[in-house]
Amino acid sequence: MANYYCETSFILLYPEGVEKNMIEDFIVNEFGDDDETYMVEIYLEPDGIWFHSENLDIDEAIEIVKKLLQEFYPDDFKVIFSWANYCSKPRLDSFSGGAAVVTKIEDKLFYPEQQAIEYAKSI
User: Fold this and answer.
1) What angle do helix axes 58-72 and 20-31 make, rounded to 10 degrees?
2) What residues contact residue 94 under an 8 Å CB cut-off, 6+ apart?
3) What is residue 59's three-state secondary structure?
4) Could you tell me which residues come within 8 angstroms of residue 46 by beta carbon, excluding any fewer than 6 positions away?
5) Which of 31, 53, 62, 90 can bridge 40 by disulfide, Cβ–Cβ 3.0-4.6 Å?
6) What's the chain's Rg over C-alpha atoms?
């Protein structure tokens, strides 16, 4: 049996002037401290908030990032992260990925295959 994965790993640097414990309290209050609640793991590292997941729910990660941006970051702050889709066994349709740009009010997803197809049609 093949196992499919959607993996990401990125860091959101702490905003200037915000204490790490304020962010930690917000994360616990907003998202809980139960590792089973969300598909993305959140770690508070010395330089920032590290997000990691092997079974990423992209919409969930965007929701978490948006809430953090809305609470602690300047209006023009943007977060960019990418993910990889892959499978434990060779499959023609099992390797892909994408990227997201997230702000306080909007987000946009990018998929390399779609962009390549669009470009190929234009040339």
Assistant:
1) 130
2) 2, 4, 85, 86, 87
3) helix
4) none
5) 53
6) 16
Q: Which residues pair with 48 in a beta bridge?
A: 13
Total number of domains in the chain: 1
Instruction: Retrieve residue 68's tokens.
Output: 């953090």
**Amino acid code (one letter) for 87:** C
Percent of the chain at pLDDT > 90 equals 61
Q: Look up the domain containing 26 and give its range.
A: 4-122
Structure tokens at 1: 């049996």
Is the distance from CB of 100 to CB of 76 less than 8 angstroms? no
DSSP secondary-structure letter at 15?
P
pLDDT tens digits, 71-90: 999 999 999 999 999 999 98
pLDDT at 101: 97
